[in-house]
Design goal:
Chain lengths: 134, 134
DNA sequence: ATTACTGCAAATACTTTGCATACCG
DNA sequence: CGGTATGCAAAGTATTTGCAGTAAT
């Protein structure tokens, strides 16, 4: 049995009631590191939580996103991927195998004056071919 | 009547037969600078090209993307936006009014060794609140 | 008892596919 | 004529919504 204590704490801090499903979804986001789609989360967890519905996965991810625990990733055009919030980093998507890698990237440098803009989030997506496929 | 000569030339260079519809779609991408969705392109052009179908817009944009004339932008989760290929730049999306701005950004600096990766494309998406809405 | 959470089914939104018609060289 | 472009309708896929049942405080 895993230890979910730090997740319980994290959810409570954000004012989210740590139901079993929520904890499991967050745990999967945090551990899998695969930037999963809703479907991938659902497929994985529904094997253990047999009554789980996709609606709940959607609801939960929406809640996490609003409360700043998770982030929507616009990687493919047709589907959303999610990841647990961590430090700034970019993503690399392989066009051949569709794997997604994390990439360390220096902080963005804006060449315009952006002092009037409020910035909440920065996403970097690099597309190409990964070493395995090359 | 607009001068479409440079577009005709561009399409021909890429081996694309410059039908009227294709020229108009490219022209709209190039001029509007609004990073339009398929729907926006369709709504705009179908006022003048009454028989235009969305399928054709989809087909054309797919063709442009494959031939390197246009780029798919993953800005919202649920829909694709397109822009004519220009130099590297980022996009800012306002959470309140949903406008999309272009942003000048310095070249990305990777902190990992990426020599084994082939990089074809880089997208930067910044989210927040724009001056008008702030 | 009240509020919040979960889940099914239906509805919506976006995109793709199959096929028929129209156009161009 | 032969190949390409266009367009309609249907199918496919992802997400959201409405509502009812369930669990938690």
């Amino acid at each position: 049995m895993k230890n979910y204590d730090h997740i319980l704490k994290k959810l409570k801090e954000k004012g989210i009631r740590p139901s079993y499903i929520r904890v499991r979804i967050y745990s999967y986001l945090e551990e899998s590191r695969i930037h999963p789609t809703v479907d991938e989360i659902y497929e994985f967890l529904s094997k253990e939580i047999l009554t789980l519905s996709k609606t709940t996965v959607y609801n939960t991810l929406k809640l996490f996103t609003e409360k700043g625990l998770a982030q929507q990733l616009n990687i493919e055009g047709n589907e959303l991927r999610y990841e647990a919030i961590r430090g700034f980093h970019g993503h690399f998507k392989c066009e051949k195998c569709n794997s997604i890698y994390d990439m360390k990237i220096s902080q963005l440098e804006f060449e315009d004056d952006i002092s009037e803009f409020v910035i909440n989030e920065e996403q970097v997506l690099v597309t190409g071919v990964c070493p395995k496929c090359n």
